[in-house]
Design a protein that fits this description.
The longest helix is centred in the N-terminal third of the chain and has 18 residues. About 40% of the residues lie in helices and about 15% in strands. It is of the alpha/beta class. Helix 23 runs parallel beside helix 24. It has 32 helices and 23 strands.
Length: about 775
């Protein structure tokens, strides 16, 4: 999070959100002066906290400033030509300049290379797409390529649908550091070097490489797993339920063979054929029954669809644990081994789920879903557990098996009913791809309807004060909680110092757009000096819902918020930056409904940059050196990684730029650390304290605001600020240790070098 203070250009965000991977080499900042002062070592470590993303912001800032202000001798000598040029039409001026360039390149033997670069530039740049995407450029009648080169890149615009300006700068720290134009760099240097231009949010074409490196088992690996599985002290039987119906023979054989190939051998396969009419299905199943006593089958006389067929298979089961396998899907050969190994490590487990991917007709794997650990909010939005999910048999039998009427989402319904009966701490996630699904990636309309009814029933059974809503065009749902009656008073805390333009915008948007009642606004002035600011503060005090507090001490973001929290009258606190602007009118209603839940701690909002890209969608621990923003720089309407930009979810932390929490909880955990975290990381630390106290921190995409962070970002290159930031990072490391390296709500197979949910193998070496 970030607060804008005149003259206070802290390193808060660059350390907090942009810490780099160890693999990214960072240029030393002010290295000579630091060596002379004996602080080179500390500076290098803090310099490495300025990540590719931070360099990206700096690069865009450099690009936006245009040509270097240094005046060369040649520039001075050409002054008269520039004066003459200013008096002719732009068309003639451009033609003359072009002719001069061609002549110069010819004399210096650069013309062939420049022509090749020009052809590649126009081939890479999509002029028609650029004009369609950026209507303001088309409306102004500007040349699209010239606009991109002169200002479009600085504004974060993309030159083509397959080329990401921000993504290129994020991936290439050296390019960002010098402020080079990404497209020109790619054409002149990057293409030959094999640098990536992949847009942020698009799937990286490296899953096959990941499989090669991490999920290709040799015969020696399989033999070792069989040995280790046989030596485990607890080796329960797992019943695998498989309904079949008119399955193509080749697919059915592959599915059954994937079970037979398991390295853990204490299993049984219970097949229920649902009155198949295709010839050969029943006989194929019988042949497997005769060949392996662990395979047994029942043959239904009438078709009952997937739910009744699954229950028929359940009647055959004798295992202590149970799972399902669709008749055309595949299990990884080490699937059951990892399940049993987890049970031996965590004997209290009640439910286990794994990662999964899809498999096409050619047998190629794709669309890997690297899942987070259990998030109740995310699960209530979508059945991300899906496959492979393994249950204790006793729990499934206690529920009566799968309910009819929920075909297509009967597994989701079962899981919802089951999690109501067990402790969430007994749900284990195995971060391994153990299941390969042939089904289409998007569910049918019928299964979406069944999922909607399953969540509705879940809400009714628990008597939750909420309603379920469908999200148009997406296979996910929204749980909208009701406000308490009466609605609690919210104290909105806004620290500020001068920058009256930002404060006026922020406060004005809250007063004009916020539909929630009641609230009060506490403006905490940290020593504003400008007369216009002081006059505006006096004006604000006339508004009955606004109080102006004065904090006449050195800037300390934590202390300012703690001071205001003690003064606040409201039951609920909303920490809001002075550069935040309201978009959704019910932003505060949405956040309060979550914060009012007894088991919820901090609640975060969805924040955008001014250019409608994601600034904040929750905090992921371990991104860079310490923590980073989820989905940073994604387009505003992007669904995110498996719809995570559209789904409320449990997260480790949220930004203090817009954070809502109950006042009593804030005080109970000691508020923010004003001694060791005066500037940066205080909100991450606060959220972790709340989580440690037993509460879930929730991020919601349905509270939308702008965070005009780039408006106020100043230069952050003084030795004092780097030293302070370094100390804050060190303090967090000492306090939270390895907890910062493994976020339970982010897969270990996803990158920590960037904030785009790409696979870890894409990280620079």
């Amino acid at each position: 999070m970030r607060i804008v203070f005149e003259g206070e250009n802290s390193l808060r965000d660059s350390i907090k959100w942009h810490s780099p991977p160890a693999q990214v080499r960072c240029p030393n900042l002010d290295s000579q002066s630091l060596k002379e002062s004996g602080e080179a070592k500390a500076s290098q470590r803090v310099g490495c906290a300025v990540t590719a993303t931070a360099r990206c912001a700096n690069a865009l800032a450099k690009l936006s400033k245009g040509r270097d202000t240094t005046v060369s001798t040649l520039w001075q000598a050409a002054r008269r030509l520039r004066v003459i040029g200013s008096r002719v039409s732009p068309r003639i001026r451009r033609a003359a300049l072009g002719a001069a360039k061609v002549a110069w390149w010819s004399v210096t033997f650069k013309l062939p290379r420049k022509l090749r670069e020009r052809r590649l530039l126009t081939k890479t740049f999509d002029a028609e797409w650029y004009l369609r995407t950026y209507a303001d450029v088309a409306a102004a009648g500007l040349d699209p390529l010239s606009h991109y080169l002169s200002s479009g890149a600085a504004e974060g615009r993309d030159p083509a649908p397959g080329f990401s300006t921000v993504g290129y700068l994020n991936r290439n720290a050296d390019v960002a550091a010098v402020g080079a134009n990404p497209l020109l760099h790619y054409v002149q240097i990057g293409r030959a070097e094999g640098r990536k231009i992949t847009p942020i949010g698009s799937p990286e074409n490296n899953y096959k490489d990941w499989i090669c490196r991490h999920d290709t088992l040799t015969e020696a690996d399989l033999t070792d797993m069989r040995r280790r599985g046989a030596e485990l002290p607890h080796r329960p039987k797992i019943s695998i339920l498989m309904p079949t119906y008119n399955t193509p023979e080749v697919l059915l054989r592959e599915a059954i063979d994937s079970v037979i190939a398991q390295t853990y051998e204490n299993w049984e396969l219970c097949v229920a054929d649902d009155a198949s009419t295709a010839p050969g299905v029943a006989e194929l199943i019988r042949s497997y029954e005769r060949a392996d006593p662990r395979i047994k089958a029942t043959y239904r006389q009438t078709n009952g669809q997937s739910t009744l067929a699954t229950n028929s298979a359940l009647e055959l089961a004798t295992g202590e644990w149970v799972t399902t396998l669709d008749h055309d899907d595949l299990l990884s050969p080490h699937a059951l081994f990892h399940v049993i190994a987890t049970l031996n490590s965590h004997p209290a487990t009640q439910l286990i789920y794994s990662d999964e991917d899809k498999i096409d007709a050619s047998g190629d794997r794709y669309d890997a879903h690297f899942k987070p650990d259990f998030s109740l909010e995310l699960f209530r939005s979508q059945n991300y557990l899906n496959h492979l999910t393994v249950h204790r048999m006793a729990n499934v039998r206690a529920l009566g098996g799968w309910r009819t009427g929920f075909d297509g989402s009967h597994d989701y319904d079962l899981n919802l009913r089951l999690i109501e009966r067990i402790d969430p701490s007994t749900i284990c996630h195995v971060p391994q791809v153990l299941y390969h699904q042939r089904a289409p990636s998007s569910p049918s309309a019928f299964s979406r309807n069944a999922a909607f009814r399953a969540i509705q029933d879940h809400v009714k059974r628990l008597r939750l004060p909420a309603v379920v809503e469908e999200i148009a065009g997406l296979p996910i749902h929204r749980l909208r909680f009701n406000l308490p009656d009466p609605a609690p008073l919210v104290s909105i805390i806004i620290p500020t110092r001068d920058r009256v333009d930002l404060l006026r915008m922020s406060v004005g948007s809250i007063l004009e757009k916020t539909t929630y009642e009641p609230f009060e606004i506490l403006i905490v002035d940290n020593g504003s000096l400008e007369k216009t600011t002081k006059n505006f503060l006096v004006e604000l005090e006339r508004e009955p819902r606004i109080r102006v507090l004065h904090y006449p001490y050195p800037f300390n973001y934590s202390a300012i918020n703690n001071f205001a929290a003690r003064t606040a009258v409201g039951e609920i606190l909303a920490l809001v930056n002075n550069d935040v602007e309201v978009i959704s009118r019910d932003w505060l209603t949405e956040m309060v409904t979550w914060a009012a839940q007894d088991d919820v701690g901090c609640v975060g909002a969805k924040l955008y940059y001014s250019n409608n890209t994601i600034q904040h969608a929750g905090v992921i621990l371990g991104l860079g050196e310490l923590a980073g923003h989820s989905h940073k720089h994604y387009p505003r309407d992007h669904p995110g990684y498996f719809y995570r930009l559209k789904s409320p979810q449990t997260l480790s932390a949220v930004t203090g730029a817009c954070l809502v929490v109950r006042k009593q909880l804030y005080l109970n955990v000691g508020g923010m650390d004003e001694d060791s975290l005066r500037i940066a990381l205080n909100d991450v630390d606060f959220c972790l304290k709340v989580r440690e106290a037993g509460y879930r921190n929730v991020w919601t995409p349905f509270a939308e605001l702008y965070h005009h962070e780039s408006v106020s970002r100043g230069r952050e290159n003084t030795l004092e600020k780097r030293e302070r930031a370094f100390k804050e990072v060190q303090f967090m490391r000492q306090k939270w240790g390895t907890l910062l390296d493994r976020d339970p709500f982010y897969s270990p197979h996803l990158t920590t070098a960037r904030q785009d949910f790409s696979i870890r193998e894409c990280e620079p070496e």
